[in-house]
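User: I want to check something. If I give you two sequences, will you return the structure for each one separately, not as a complex?

Assistant: Yes, each is folded on its own. Here is the first sequence with its structure:
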Amino acid sequence: GRLETSDCESLGSASGSEGDAEYAEGISLPDMDLELLHDPEDELLCANLMDVVQATLGRAPLGAKRCWRLLMPAQLQAQVRTELLRLACSEPCGLRGALLDLCVEHGKACHDVGHIAADPAVVPTFQLTLVLRLDSRLWPKIQGLFASGPAFAPLKLSTGFRVMKKKLYSSEQLLIEEC
C-alpha cells in the first residue's frame, strides 16, 4: 500500500489489505496502469513543482552576467510532469522525497540553473537531474546574442529532454532516460 504522510519522515511502511494482495497476485507492475499508482498528493505536488521549475527557467543564468527567460512549451511541460510522476511512483515517499537539479544544454555546454526540493520538510530519498535543451532551430539565430542584447531575453526550449535518477538510500545504478 501507499505510505501515509507521517510515515515518510520515518520511512515506515503501511500494510495493504488481504484483498489487495489477492487482486495484485499474478499482475506484474509493468502490466498495471501507472495512473493507478499515482497519489493525488503527488499530482498536486507535481503541479506546484512545475510552477517552481517554470519560475526558475524564467530567470535562468546561461551566460556570464546574463539571465534568460526560457519558455517551456506545453508539450514539454506535460512530458516532464508525466516522467517525474512515473519516476517517483516507486519511491518510499513518492515525489515528496525528490531533489530536482535543473540544467539547460545548449551547444556542448550544460548550465546548472537551479536546485529544487519537492518538499523541503521531507528527507530526500532520490535525486532527479532534468536536462532541458534549447530549441536547436533557434540556436544559429541566437548564438550571437550571448555577447550582447537585453537582459532576460526569451528563448524557447526543445520538447526533447533527459532525466537521470539517483536513489539516495541505495547503491543501485544510476537510471538515465532520454525523452
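And separately, the second sequence with its own structure:
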Amino acid sequence: SQVIVHDVNELTEKLFPVVEAMQKHFSAGSGTYYSDSIFFLSVAMHRIMPKEITQVIQVDLDLKYKTNIRDLFDEFDNFPEGAVIGIAREMQPVYRHTFWQYRRENPQTKVGEPPPDGLPGFNSGVLLLNLEGMRQSKLYNQLLEPSMVQNLTEKYHFKGHLGDQDFFTMVGMEHPELFHVLDCTWNRQLCTWWKDHGYSDVFDQYFQCEGEVKIYHGNCNTPIPED
C-alpha cells in the first residue's frame, strides 16, 4: 500500500481561490482567513487531487472504528445516479437552529426537520467523495460559483461556522439528489450540546440511531464508549 503525504500549505494555496467566497458564509470568524480554507478541502477535493484518484474517503480524527473501513468503500456502489457525495445526517438540531428565519417564513418546510422525513442537514465527520462524479457534475461545479453560493445563502438566510459541513447542508436543502445519505451507524455522533441549549423537547428525534454502530464520532470532545 502506498502512502502519499500532502503539504497543507500547498493544498491551501490551491483551495483558496475556489473556496474564498464561501468562507464569509461558513467560517467561525467573520473575515476570510487564508488558513481557514483547509476546512473546505472536501468541497473542492476534485479540483486538487490528481485525475487518476477517482474516490476518496475523508474522515475526522475524533472517530472510533468498530468495523473495517474497507466496508465503507462499498457504499460508493450504492450512490444513485447523479449523487457525488456520501454523507450522514447531522444528529443534533443544529440546523433547525441555523435555519430559524427560513423556517419561520416557510412553516411547511422540511428544512431543519428531523428524520426520517425532514432535512436535518449533514455531518461531515465521515465523507465519501466520488471525485470523478464531482468533476463531471455540471450542477455541483455551478454550485461552487460565488454567485450561486450568495444566492443560496440569501434564500435560506444562512450564516454558519462549520466549514464544508455548512456548505453541504445548504446545498442539500436545494439539491438533495447530489448526496447519498449514509446510514447513521457509519457516523454515530455522540455530542449532545444542543440538548441543553433550548432543544431538549425535540432532541431525541434527531439523536436516535438504530442498528449496530460501525463508526463512533466523539464530536464536541464527547468521550467514546470503551469496548
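Because they were folded independently, the notes below concern the second chain alone. The mean pLDDT is 95. The CA atoms of residues 75 and 182 lie 8 Å apart.
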